[in-house]
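From the shared-data thread, chain only:
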Amino acid sequence: MIVHRLTVDGKDYFLPDPVDDLRGKILEAVRAGGGYVTIPPLRGGPGVDVLFSPGMPVTWAQIEVDPPAPRQEESRVDIDSFDAL
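Structure, as tokens:
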């Protein structure tokens, strides 16, 4: 799974794919001299509005994340049983 990291003025935002539309909105805000762009959440929620302006440091990164491994149940040993010895 690909997750995108957007770093704006030292703060990281993790984004779901695709990000092409968001990149266009950010570029449009910067070209207009500044403006708010809503950054969508990685998981549910309303997102966050970030003010973008010319000269603001912005960095994009793609991170490949492996899905979590299935959780294995621990085996239990009955301490009152002699079979565990």
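The helical segments are 20-31.
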